[in-house]
Amino acid sequence: MARITQTIGAVLNKFGAVRTNNSFSQSKSEIKFIEAALVKVPTIASPTQAFCSAIETGKNGFLAQSETEWEYILDTLIENPGLREEIGDNAFNDVMQKYAPWIRAHEIVKTLNQILDTINSPVDRLILPLSSKPLEKDFAAYFLDTIIEKHPTLFERGLYSLKSRGIFTLMGEIWVYFRRLLSPVFPFPKDNKIYE
Questions:
Q1: Tell me: the pLDDT tens digits for 52-67?
Q2: In whole angstroms, what is the distance from residue 28 CA to residue 49 CA?
Q3: What does the longest C-alpha to C-alpha distance in the chain come to?
Q4: Is the CA virtual torsion 172, 178, 180, 186 positive or negative?
Q5: Cα separation of 42 and 72, whole Å?
Q6: What residue spans of the chain are helical by DSSP H?
Q7: How many Cα atoms are found within 13 Å in the side-chain-facing hemisphere of 65?
């Protein structure tokens, strides 16, 4: 993930060019805009429904339909690094206000509660610490700590394999692990028929 972030961040602009006259393009989400905004890179996109709902032209990105619009916006951004930085910052702030996980979680709970109210469900409403303006700290209890994310360790995975799959599977996994570890020193044979 860090490599993707560095790659996108190194780019001056992110392009979301698609044909707008077909249903496949219209079904695409605004994820390209979100990815670029998280690393403060301005987006130039075709005006699909998703991009139109996410991008305010000139504020947090650009929508371009014709070839001349694309050329004009590209030239403007190339010649004006201050504008690139401003648009990138605005896009980042906009994404953090609209698409952050705690914002989306708040919206999901609100929607699910509305559905439960509409169908007169006997199920209780979903109760989460919802304030009028959700913040990251409101949902901190629902995110995994970085220490927990490092589990299972290699040793724990080995114990699981031994317990659930047996000694032969564990031995095979150990062989594959060490073989991959040593592959820079002892590369896999290229003429071996097994790999074809």
A1: 999 999 999 999 988 8
A2: 9
A3: 67
A4: negative
A5: 15
A6: 2-10, 23-26, 31-38, 49-54, 67-79, 81-98, 101-118, 146-149, 154-165, 167-182
A7: 6
Residue in the structure block whose two tokens are 């709902």: 53
Q: Which fold has domain 2-98?
A: Rossmann fold (3.40.50)
Q: Do 49 and 42 contact (CB within 8 A), yes or no? A: no
Q: CA 162 to CA 120: how far, in whole Å?
A: 49
Q: How many angstroms separate the CA atoms of 110 and 112, rounded?
A: 6
Whether residue 16 is predicted with pLDDT greater than 60 in this model: the reply is: no
- Please state the domain extents for the chain: 2-98, 101-143, 144-187
Beta sheet of 43-45, edge-to-edge order? 14-16, 43-45, 62-63
Q: Whole-model pTM?
A: 0.57
| Dist. CA 44–CA 148, nearest whole Å | 38
Number of residues assigned to the chain: 196
pLDDT at 140 over 70: no
Q: Are 188 and 195 in contact (CB under 8 A)?
A: yes
Residue from 10, 17, 12, 9 nearest 82 by CA: 12
Kindly state the tokens that stand for 150.
């490092």
- Tokens linked to 73: 């916006």
